[in-house]
């Protein structure tokens, strides 16, 4: 009644003034009612948008769009990320999503994404009332409950984005009735149960992303019917069974050209497409999938990124992978793959990243790998390759800069050919091999080196002085070798500018280093976060500069021959979580400032020559006795009280 009256008055005014710019319109009472109950459900709205929802012309309210003819609400656009003057910023809406929004029966778009405090459930009758809905964005909220079965009645739905909530239950079978669906994003929730076979009906689906849930069962064979699919992400679930053979079904047309004659290393028809010829991203990592990669995998001609890591897949890699001419990233680490790498791999000319680590793949490596002129990262670690030596052609690969050959059965000297790679080496992991020579001094010339891991070999030499040139070095792991001499070249590395790399992680433990302790913290390398010098024969005194390493969270100097008092400045190391100094010759008292090391979770001062009272208070009193035992004369909690 009020509403009709108001509309009438408004029309009178408009007519009287003959001015249409003064338009005062009111939207449908149902729409107002629905929007008001939505507003009432929200307690906090940091954006201030809802505060301005007053009057009856809801079409003018911020975030609301109406249809011109019917003046019914068509869109709610209140996303958590707002862009203002080119900047994006996040707002909060805390409260419950009102079930009354289903009264907005003309709605085509709901965008309430990224409102982290928005709680409640997906309205139970959504499918019965909002049949015009095309886009439903409720991602990044705090929604609980499950997806109502009647979601399948939203016949116009094109995008369903419910990712990053706390939704649970199984994915309703009825989703298979959403024939117009293009994007189905349910990732990062707590969905369980199986993937419904009915998804095979979604012939327009371009993106299907269910990663980070607890889905079980097989990947249904019907997936192979999704001919428009570009992105399939089922990673981080509990899926089992084989990769569906339907993934690689041939299209009816190409059956006519069916011809499986392969020449050694070459494939006659390099781009024969399968039915899923649009699939570009296939992410199935971190599941329990088993069986083989289908031999026709190469029919997935549009593949750009494939990750199958951490499953139970087995068998040899099919030579049809040579057909994947668009493939840039291929991750198959942590499976049970065996056999040889097919020669056809050399045809994947766009490949940038190849990670086959932790499988049972055998050598020899096909030289064809060397034709991968775009390959930047090659991780062959921990297979049954038994390479004996690093193949010479590695140095000829024009883009290769990250080389991971851990546990590859390589012996002898670190080969000089790594000195002359076309692309400067940035990451080099030769750990757990049988290298036994020296660390060549040309390593200091690898001026883009960011990570070097030579741990667990039999290398016996000094650290070359040339290391001081490694301006970009951030991660250095030389542990468990037979290295001798001084650790000082590490701390002499000159940082180049504020953006240059600087050492963050250093593990020199389990070697025979004897000198250089006076350098720690002295040079420019004081952003170190992790330093392990344990199990060496380091002698000398900790310098006061140790107090400059203010970012360090783990310091292990245990099992050395370090002496004298613990520097008082160690109280500066307030980021420390782990401090292991046991089995040295430290003397004097535990500095009272150790009470400032509030983040300490692990401490060991045992088997030194420390004496006096353990400073009283947290965190020191909370450690077990064994952290202080075997000293000259420590007393007080947790040890026995000091004698007066
Ligand atoms: C509705 O009207 C507005 C303002 O006159 C106009 O900008 C808009 O394009 C119209 N929309 C449709 C769908 O006709
Ligand atoms: C999310 O919802 C739960 C209840 O399901 C509530 O306890 C919690 O406070 C909500 N979190 C936020 C950020 O609003
Ligand atoms: C794949 O091809 C097989 C044999 O042609 C057929 O039986 C099956 O239905 C196809 N699967 C899909 C999902 O199209
Ligand atoms: C290869 O994959 C494994 C996990 O499966 C990962 O730990 C490793 O870092 C990857 N290698 C590179 C170079 O990224
Ligand atoms: C690895 O290769 C070397 C030389 O080719 C051979 O002597 C050795 O037996 C092989 N080791 C294994 C475990 O296959
Ligand atoms: C590396 O490339 C050079 C120049 O193209 C060529 O002469 C040499 O034979 C190549 N070496 C290997 C091992 O492929
Ligand atoms: C270096 O390699 C060893 C053995 O492969 C590994 O355990 C260690 O984590 C690696 N170090 C770093 C810093 O990645
Ligand atoms: C330091 O290295 C030793 C020997 O390699 C190892 O046992 C110890 O756990 C390491 N310490 C830390 C804190 O990682
Ligand atoms: C200890 O930390 C303070 C504040 O960060 C700093 O000014 C001082 O130089 C540090 N002391 C040493 C010895 O590095
Ligand atoms: C501290 O180190 C000693 C000597 O290595 C060891 O016996 C003891 O178990 C360690 N204590 C803790 C809590 O790690």
Quick tags:
644 residues; mainly beta; Leucine-rich repeat, LRR (right-handed beta-alpha superhelix); 22-stranded mixed beta sheet; five-stranded parallel beta sheet; 47 strands
Radius of gyration based on Cα positions:
33 Å
Strand content: 15-25%
What does the average pLDDT come to?
90
The percentage helix is: under 10%
Question: What is the CATH level 1 assignment of the domain at 3-164?
Answer: Alpha Beta
Number of strands: 47
Find the CATH superfamily of the domain at 3-164.
Answer: Ribonuclease Inhibitor
Report how far apart the termini are. Answer: 91 Å
User: What class would the helix/strand composition place it in?
Assistant: mainly beta
Q: What name is given to the CATH topology of the domain at 3-164?
A: Leucine-rich repeat, LRR (right-handed beta-alpha superhelix)
Give a list of the ligands. Answer: 2-acetamido-2-deoxy-beta-D-glucopyranose
Query: Could you name the ranges where pLDDT drops below 50 across 5 or more consecutive residues?
Result: 13-22, 253-259, 261-271
* Shape by Cα distribution: globular
Architecture per CATH nomenclature, i.e. the level-2 architecture of the domain at 3-164: Alpha-Beta Horseshoe
Helical segment tally? Answer: 5
The major beta sheet can be summarized as:
22 strands, mixed
Pfam families: LRR_1 (PF00560), LRR_8 (PF13855), LRRNT_2 (PF08263)
Domain Leucine-rich repeat-containing N-terminal plant-type: 29-66
Membrane topology: Single-pass membrane protein
Keywords: Leucine-rich repeat, Membrane, Repeat, Signal, Transmembrane, Transmembrane helix
């Amino acid at each position: 009644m009020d509403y009709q009256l108001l509309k009438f008055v408004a029309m009178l005014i408009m007519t009287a003034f003959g001015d249409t710019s003064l338009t005062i319109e009111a939207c449908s009472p149902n729409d107002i009612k629905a929007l008001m109950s939505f507003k009432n459900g929200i307690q906090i709205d940091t954006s201030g948008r809802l505060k301005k929802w007053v009057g009856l012309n809801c079409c003018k309210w911020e975030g609301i769009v109406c249809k011109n003819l019917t003046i019914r609400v068509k869109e709610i656009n209140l996303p958590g990320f707002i862009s203002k003057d080119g900047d994006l910023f996040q707002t909060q809406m805390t409260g419950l999503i009102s079930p009354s929004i289903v009264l907005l029966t003309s709605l085509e778009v709901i965008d309430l994404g990224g409102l982290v405090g928005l709680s409640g459930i997906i309205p139970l009758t959504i499918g019965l009332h909002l049949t015009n809905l095309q886009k439903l964005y409720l991602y990044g909220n705090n929604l609980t409950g499950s997806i109502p079965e009647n979601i399948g009645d939203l016949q116009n739905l094109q995008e369903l984005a419910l990712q990053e909530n706390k939704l649970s239950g199984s994915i309703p079978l009825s989703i298979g009735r959403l024939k117009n669906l293009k994007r189905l994003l349910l990732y990062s929730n707590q969905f369980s149960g199986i993937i419904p076979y009915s998804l095979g009906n979604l012939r327009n689906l371009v993106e299907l992303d269910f990663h980070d849930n607890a889905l079980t069962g097989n990947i249904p064979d019907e997936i192979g019917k999704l001919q428009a699919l570009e992105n399939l992400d089922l990673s981080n679930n509990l899926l089992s069974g084989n990769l569906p053979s339907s993934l690689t079904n041939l299209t009816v047309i190409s059956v006519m050209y069916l011809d499986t004659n392969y020449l050694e290393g070459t494939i006659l028809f390099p781009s024969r497409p399968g039915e899923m010829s649009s699939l570009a991203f296939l992410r199935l990592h971190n599941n329990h999938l088993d069986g083989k990669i289908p031999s026709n995998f190469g029919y997935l001609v549009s593949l750009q990124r494939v990750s199958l890591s951490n499953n139970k897949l087995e068998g040899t890699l099919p030579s049809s992978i040579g057909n994947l001419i668009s493939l840039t990233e291929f991750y198959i680490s942590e499976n049970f793959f065996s056999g040889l790498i097919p020669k056809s791999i050399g045809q994947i000319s766009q490949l940038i990243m190849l990670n086959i680590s932790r499988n049972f793949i055998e050598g020899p490596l096909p030289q064809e790998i060397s034709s991968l002129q775009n390959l930047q990262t090659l991780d062959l670690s921990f297979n049954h390759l038994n390479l004996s030596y690093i193949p010479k052609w590695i140095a000829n690969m024009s883009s290769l800069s990250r080389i991971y050959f851990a546990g590859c059965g390589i012996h002898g000297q670190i080969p000089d050919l790594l000195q002359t790679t076309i692309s400067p080496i940035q990451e080099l992991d030769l750990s757990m091999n049988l290298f036994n020579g020296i660390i060549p001094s040309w390593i200091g010339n690898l001026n883009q080196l960011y990570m070097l891991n030579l741990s667990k070999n039999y290398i016996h030499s000094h650290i070359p002085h040339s290391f001081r040139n490694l301006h970009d070095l951030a991660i250095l792991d030389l542990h468990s070798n037979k290295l001798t001499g001084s650790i000082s070249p590490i701390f002499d590395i000159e940082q180049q500018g504020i953006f240059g790399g600087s050492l963050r992680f250093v593990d020199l433990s389990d070697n025979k280093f004897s000198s250089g302790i006076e350098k720690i913290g002295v040079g420019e390398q004081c952003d170190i976060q992790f330093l392990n010098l344990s199990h060496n024969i380091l002698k000398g005194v900790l310098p006061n500069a140790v107090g400059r390493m203010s970012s360090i969270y783990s310091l292990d100097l245990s099992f050395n021959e370090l002496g004298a008092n613990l520097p008082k400045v160690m109280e500066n190391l307030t980021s420390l979580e782990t401090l292991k100094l046991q089995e040295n010759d430290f003397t004097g008292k535990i500095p009272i400032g150790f009470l400032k090391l509030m983040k300490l979770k692990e401490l060991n001062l045992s088997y030194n020559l420390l004496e006096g009272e353990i400073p009283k208070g947290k965190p020191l009193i909370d450690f077990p006795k064994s952290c202080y035992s075997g000293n000259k004369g420590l007393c007080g909690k947790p040890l026995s009280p000091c004698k007066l």
